[in-house]
Write a structure and sequence with these properties.
The chain has 265 residues and is of the alpha+beta class. It is built from four helices and 13 strands. It folds into two domains: 46 residues; 204 residues. It has a nine-stranded antiparallel beta sheet with strand order 8-11-12-13-1-3-4-7-9, with no helix packed on it. It has a four-stranded antiparallel beta sheet with strand order 2-5-6-10, with no helix packed on it.
Length: 265
Amino acid sequence: MKFLKSTTLAVSLAASCLMPMASNASINVSIASATLTQIWSATFDGLVFGQVIVDDGTFFGAVPNIGSPVFGVNRSITFTPTGGTAGGSITYDGTELDQLAVTFPDMTTSILDSATPAQVGTVGGSLNIQTIPHFDGGNDANFDAGGLLGAGSTTVIVDFSTFNDFVGGAPGVIKSCTSTVTTCSSLPALNLDGVRYTLQGTLTLAGGDALTLRVQTANASYYEVDLVTETISPLGKNVPIPAIFIYLSALTFGLLGFVRLRKQA
């Protein structure tokens, strides 16, 4: 009986120490790359190409040429990475997105505002999603928030970097700007804060996942960001420990405890 009690106590204590490790099922991974792949601007594309987004009952509406954006043909804005590194992190509890933070590499943004496109240099641009509403379904199969275009939400849920007044000397993410018209002085009046978004892809504990963040602003401008999460070592944090491993480890610790107790007896 003394053997049974001693072994049971040791096993129980060992299991209680190991079980919290298995309960940590939340996924928290770093972002290895972040690429702005396209933007449809209600301001510039509306002016240059006479385009509008039509509310056809879908989540974002009918975004012009969403499947084949080409700068100078059906898009007035394009991005070219110039240095720096992308980064950020994603936290997901298995049901809801808890947090998404993205830092973009340094970029030159070309804006077709005249015969000679404006050139805007940025450093340290970022976006953050921290106040996460529950996903509302919408008409999109992916995780989404903000409601359909037709709902007309104006609540900001994606916080994009503010465009500083570079012409006026204000500090911020814009470090350079050249334009033959008034684009540089107009940038502080624009923003890419999102009022609805979807996140397409599957997050895993192993990392190395490809995701697409699609965002729409209050004036119906639309952009996409391709994300890739960092690959995590199988021994990294947040990796669930199989129940059999917990049991065998607890049993081993318990037997070791019993051996020590026998030696002390």
